[in-house]
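Q: My labmate handed me this sequence with no annotations at all. I'd like to see what the chain might look like in three dimensions before we decide whether it's worth expressing. Could you predict it?
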Amino acid sequence: MRLIQILLPLYDNAGRSFPKCLVDQVRRELTDTFGGVTLYLRSPAVGAWESESGAVCRDDVILVEVMVEAADATWWSTYRQELERRFSQDKIVIRASDVDIL
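A: Here is what I predict for the chain of 102 residues:
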């Protein structure tokens, strides 16, 4: 099994909250495509990174998880690009890990 995790931002670059309908759309799409999804919405994670200018940038994100038998890299790359467009982001992180169901 593969665990797919998506880190979605809560705020745009001006600090405004994204409309709830954007996250609801992601939930619907992943449920329809893969049969289920888990969203961690109550305690956003805080990400930080250094920009090219050396400034430290911060982002509040939610974690979206999907379990799949195999990860289709082409599908996920296309979906990542669509999420980057919708959320006006340079990069959205989608990562995959092997998991054992115990």
